[in-house]
Design brief:
The chain is an alpha+beta fold. The protein is built from 4 helices and 9 strands. The strands form 2 sheets. Strands 1-2-8-4-5 form a 5-stranded antiparallel beta sheet. Helix 3 links the parallel strand 6 and strand 7.
């Protein structure tokens, strides 16, 4: 009976130490999320090239050398976000994330309308307004309803060989992330 009580006591003390350690480490890791890492690239409403390189003291973003990527943060509190890109590439995909980094929606060139990057991210109330009177600039857009105020998109494009590198870089550089007016 004494061994059982001692084992339970050590187990409870160990669990308490682990619990306290985790609680004390939360502030250290909470600011090292995708949202804060993308904000380090630059201003909202602009695409910024995502690289595999890291600055001292920052965590590395997942990076595949056969892909180039760009990310844009947005705030759709007042107006929906309109994301566009023009060009022909071997493959591209775009993912919409909320501020916590949860994937809300994904699409690629095979499932997009006419293989073109053109999507609108809107809140439920904004989506009702869009369905009533869709602006000409969003006439052929894929409409995404997202119950959030802030988020970000990441475009990834496949670079099968060096000959595609410049075309992919141009596509990502010319991609547009702006409020839908």
């Amino acid at each position: 009976m004494g061994k059982l009580l001692r084992t339970l006591l050590f187990g409870l003390i160990g669990a308490g130490i682990i619990h306290i350690s985790v609680v004390l480490l939360v502030p250290h890791y909470s600011d090292r999320n995708a949202w804060s890492r993308i904000s380090a690239y630059g201003n909202d409403w602009q695409f910024h090239t995502v690289t595999g390189e890291t600055k001292p003291g920052t965590a590395r973003l997942a990076f595949d050398p056969l892909f180039q990527a760009a990310a844009c943060r947005f705030d759709i509190t007042d107006l929906p976000a309109h994301i566009t890109g023009v060009g022909t590439l071997p493959y591209w995909s775009i993912s919409v994330y909320n501020r916590q980094g949860e994937n809300i929606y994904s699409i690629n060139d095979r499932t997009a309308i006419a293989d073109q990057l053109d999507l609108v991210v809107a809140t439920p109330l904004q989506m009702i307004e869009l369905n009533k009177s869709k602006p000409l600039s969003a006439e052929n857009s894929v409409l995404i309803e997202a119950d959030m105020d802030e988020g970000f998109v990441v475009i990834r494009s496949f670079v099968p060989d060096e000959s595609w590198s410049e075309q992919v870089a141009s596509f990502l550089k010319n991609a547009n992330c702006s409020p839908l007016l």
